[in-house]
Amino acid sequence: MVAGDIGAAIGIAFTYFTIIYLxxxxxxxxxxxxxxxxxxxGMMIIGTVTGSWGAHHFTLPPPDGLGWGLPWGxxxxxxxxxxxxxxxxxxxxxxxxxxxxDHIVSGVVINLxxxxxxxxxxxxxxxxxxxxxxxxxxxxxxxxxxxxxxxWGLGRAFQQLSPMVVVAVxxxxxxxxxxxxxxxxxxxxxxxxxxxxxxxxGVRVAPLxxxxxxxxxxxxxxxxxxxxxxxxxxxxxxxxxxxxFIALAALILxxxxxxxxxxxxxVFGFAQAIPLRLGDAPIFRLIPDQFVRMTPxxxxxxxxxxxxxxxxxxxxxxxxxxxxxT
Amino acid sequence: xxxxxxxxxxxxxxxxxxxxxxxGGQLLALVAALVIALLLGSVIILxxxxxxxxxxxxxxxxxxGSRDGFGYVISIATPLIFSALAVAVCFKGxxxxxGVEGQYLVGMVAAAWAALKLDxxxxxxxxxxxxxxxxxxxxAFASVPAVLKVKTGAHEVVTTIMMNGIxxxxxAWAINGPLHFTxxxxxxxxxxxxxxxxxxxxxxxxxxxxxxxxxxxxxxLFPMALVTAAIVWFVLKRMRLGYEARAVGASVGSAxxxxxxxxxxxxxxxxxxxxxxxxxxxxxxxxDKGYLPVQYEAALGFxxxxxxxxxxxxxxxxxxxxxxxxxxxxxxxxxxxxxxxPREFVIILQGILIISVVVTYQLAQRRLLARQLRKAAAVEExxxxxxxxxxxGLAKEDR
Lengths: 326, 399
Fold this sequence. Notes:
The complex is a heterodimer of chains A (326) and B (399). Chain A has helices spanning 2-32, 40-57, 72-98, 103-126, 163-170, 172-181, 183-193, 195-200, 205-231, 243-253, 258-278, 282-286, 289-304. Chain A has 326 residues and is mainly alpha-helical. Chain A has one domain (2-304): ABC transporter involved in vitamin B12 uptake, BtuC. With 399 residues, chain B is mainly α. Chain B is built from 15 helices and no strands. Chain B has helices at residues 18-47, 52-64, 67-92, 100-117, 125-152, 156-176, 221-238, 240-250, 252-257, 262-280, 282-289, 300-310, 315-338, 344-382, 385-397. Chain B is globular, with a radius of gyration of 23 Å. The interface between A and B is large, with 48 and 49 residues.
């Protein structure tokens, strides 16, 4: 019984993990290129509203023989959310890279603008400002082979998961490879550590930083679209619930490393799932739900203050680079 | 974009007093941003087949055309003045307090606690104690990132973001727990707000004296906001703390060499900022609702950041920017009633305005910096000590 609850809680944790991890990876690309991105939440919000529109809009499968039996509505929703996130992130890239506006200032503005833009888009897409109509298509959930048959109810953790969860988990491989094993990744990281040195070796800093920020928007937008399309099945204002900031917290705790980011995202995802699924367990009944929800933030502050462990952001993150932007 | 490597000064370049150069550049940037926002807004309006003049006209007449219209604008502006001042105070010291959001939420909880639990206090004393508790709660919450910054070097931007997350859960806990609703009638189960405060905890209405209906919630808080802005101006311009803040904001290294205790200045600024943040929630708590609802008006702290940018962190600028923001916010209804453009258009307009302000101010600042460097280069050539002192003064003023 209790094991079954834990299994179900882990299942919910996977959902939150996917949102936090995708968004956190977005932050990782941006900050590794030297651009601090506290606008992740806003980019996610844009992903939710556009993703939901995509899923609504492309409900009909393509003409015979071209659909390959794939759920095109949700897939298009996710892709459109991704594209919209990247497009929206262009504002952040323009402001910080081209105009050298303070990264924090720009990030705050991004978050502010996103809320209004989402409402505006919603009136265009759905004819109402704060939500879309329910009943939007989503992908068929999958059971993970072998893992889903773990006994004592723990297998429930691996049943009925969105295919996107699997995609998010597997994403760690291409991301790690791109960051640490390719020339592009080395150059991107060098822009975040020491742009002067990078430029003296012929690396073009500005375009790489644009790529970092746009990737960041794409991933945060994807996370938002996943939330609206695959989790909530509709768009609603305030849907992101500050998960963009939790992703930022996970990113800091991970020391800007994609593998550790996975662990941090899962732990924070589990913290989100506790009040939903384990709220009745004896230990958690003593602590109000709200305090459980605070844990990601508290842990991050404790680590930042250096009481436990040590984190080091990319050296040049947050600093404008004055070199010629060629 | 290589504005830094500026050419040597030419003989016929006019010499302008530095204050004019500062103010002129800022004003020009603000006007440019306004023009950009209005033009881009016009494109959207035209796409809806409406006339920009009609839409902007509707927004203006709705705010300035009648007394109660302007009353509404003022009461929207009131909390924004406090939150923008809170942001600006930290900004002067080179710090970014994104935590005004969380600080005012905690301030509201502390104030609600005082209003409900100390309701034996007589007359207006209860109101003042409630406001004081709001400020104290916010100060306590703001001092966490301040102390962590000074003692451990944890960056205030990240810690205040995290503190915001904590504050949201804290409010939810307070309304569900210690401050939960007890005045419900039998058979009703509403738990979406705290109990109603006693009447003497509330801030008295001011609007009815000017023919503004009480539904506008224009209270004595607005004059208080103006006085607060004046006090902040005095502290920043005329008091030692203000001087030290500017020194730290300009250069931590030189301020330290000049004998200023960096940590103590940073903590003082954060405490002041927190106290101001504590006042942000008072409009909805004590002038409007009279209780703390679950659906409280959020994001006032973040909007305050936008207003602070718009007002360029100067108290007078902030008051004007807050009123402008109020005009736009009020204009939402005008747009909805009078035109075919959706009301969300105004939020987009606000967004465009903020983005263009941030960019044009940045460009203006770079231009000013380039000019200073040019001047400095000229000084080096001539070796004129008076001009050199002038340049130093300029560099300080730049922050």
